[in-house]
C-alpha cells in the first residue's frame, strides 16, 4: 500500500477518511486494523478488495498494481452473505464455480473446507436452517475454498454473540495457522485484534492522529488471561484514551 | 393359536393409530373447510325449504344435475375449451413478455425510469374501458378478446418482476462480484433466483386477472365461452345452468392457483419454512 487516500463527500462537506497511508504487509502475516467508527477501516479494506477505487495512491500485490477484484484475494463480510436458495455445499462451492471450475471439482474442494470449519454433516442444509455462527462459518469456508493468498475480513465476527465469537476466534487462529494465508482483519474488538494479529494498525478518527502500527509480540496460541496479553490490551486501550 | 396371539397385538395398535390419524385428518379438514360446507348446506336447505328464493338460488342438486347434463351432452365442453384457449393464450403471452421485460427493466435503471410513468398510466387505465378501442383495432373476433385479457394480465407479472429484481440484496451481488462474477453470472446465479418468489406473486395475480377479464370479455362480445354461457343461461332463465357455469369458472380459478402454488413450492423449496 502506498500513499493511499480516499475521501467522501457528505452533505457537501469533504471527509477525508484516509490520507497518505503507507503500509506493507508480508506474506503469511496477520494484520488487524482497529479504530473508532468512521475512521475508514472498512473503506481501507474495500479498497484493498478492489470494491472501491482510491482517490490517490495505489495498492500493489507482489509489486503489481491492483486493478479491481482479483483472484488472489477473498473477502469475508460482516454478514455471511449466503445465497438462500443454495445448500451449504453449493454456497461454499459458489466461489469456485463462478471462477470457472466444474461443479464436481468445486464441490469436492468445498467438502474439504466445510470439514475444516467444523460443519461436516450440514452440507445439504439451507442457510435459513443455520444459526448465525454456523452461517458465518459457511461464509468463511466459501472464502477459503478459492484458496486466496490474501484473506480480507471485515468485522467477520461483529454480529455474533459473545460465546460464539470466542469459539470463532479460536477457529480463525487455527485456520490461519493451517492455511498459511495472509490475513487482513478489520475489527472494533481490541481483544480479537491482539488474539489474531501479528501487527495492529490503529486508525484515528478523521486523522486526529497519524495511523500507528503496533507489533503484537506474543507467543501462539495466545492466552487471553496471560499477563502479556492483558498488558497489550491495556496499551491498545490507551491508544484510544480508554483506561 | 400362536399366530393369532401375535396378530392381535400387532393389529390393535395400528387400528387405533389409523382411527386416530383419521380423526386428526377429519378435525383439520373440518377447521379448514367447515365454514364452506356449512355455507353449501345452508344454501341447499334454504333453497329446498323456501327460506331463500329457489328461482334465483336453485338447490345445489339441481345445479349439479344441470352441470352433469351439460358436460355429458358436450354443450359446455366447447365453451370450456374456447375459454381456456383465450385465457391461456393471453396468460402465456403476458408471461412470455412480462417476465423477460421485467427482468430487463429491473436491471437497467435508466430504462425503468423512462418506462415507469407510461406503464403506471396504462396500468391505471381499465382494460375494459380500452376494450372498445381494441375491438376497433382488431375486430370483434378472437384477437381483440385475447388482447384485452393479455393487456390486463401483463401488468401484475411485469411489475412484480421489476420489483423482485430491484429488491435483490445488493450485498449478495457484491459478494458474487468479489469472486469475480461477471454481469451474466451475477444475473443468472443471484438476481434471477432471488426474483423467483416475487415473480410467482405476479404470476398468481396475473392468473386471477386473466380469468376475471375472460368473463368480462365473453359477456360483452362473444357467442361461446363460459362467460357467455353465464349470461346466456340467465337470458334464457336456465338458472341452474348459469350457476353450473359459475362453479366451473370458480374451479378453473382454483385449479390455476393450485398449479402455480405447487410449481412455486417446487422451485422455492429453500424459502419454505420447515
Could you describe the 3D structure shown?
The complex is a heterodimer of chains A (243) and B (274). Chain A is an alpha/beta fold and 243 residues long. Chain A has two domains: 1-6 and 19-72 and 148-243, Rossmann fold; 83-147, no CATH class. In chain A, 35% of the residues lie in helices and 21% in strands. Chain A contains seven helices and eleven strands. In chain A, the strands form three sheets. A six-stranded mixed sheet of chain A has the order 7-8-9-3-10-11, sandwiched between helices. A three-stranded antiparallel sheet of chain A has the order 2-1-4, with no helix packed on it. A two-stranded antiparallel ribbon of chain A has the order 5-6. The longest helix of chain A is centred in the C-terminal third of the chain and has 18 residues, at 162-179. Chain A is globular and about 50 Å long. Mean pLDDT of chain A is 82; it is low at 1-14. With 274 residues, chain B is mostly helical. Chain B contains ten helices and no strands. In chain B, 31% of the residues are buried. Classes of the chains: A alpha/beta (243), B mainly alpha (274). Chain A binds chain B through residues 49-51, 69-71, 73-75, 77, 79, 81, 83-86, 94-95, 98-99, 126-129, 146, and chain B through 171-172, 174-181, 185, 189-190, 193-194, 196, 268, 270-271, 273-274.
Topology, element by element:
The complex is a heterodimer of chains A (243) and B (274).
Chain A: E1 2-10, E2 13-21, E3 30-34, H1 41-49, E4 56-58, E5 60-61, E6 64-65, E7 73-76, H2 88-98, H3 103-116, H4 132-145, E8 150-154, H5 162-179, E9 182-186, H6 190-196, E10 199-202, E11 212-215, H7 227-239
Parallel strand pairs in A: 3-9, 3-10, 7-8, 8-9
Antiparallel strand pairs in A: 1-2, 1-4, 5-6, 10-11
Helix pairs in contact in A: 2-3, 2-4, 3-4, 6-7
Chain B: H1 2-49, H2 60-72, H3 75-107, H4 109-124, H5 127-138, H6 142-166, H7 170-178, H8 183-221, H9 226-235, H10 239-267
Helix pairs in contact in B: 2-10, 3-4, 3-6, 3-8, 3-9, 5-6, 6-8, 7-8, 8-9, 8-10, 9-10
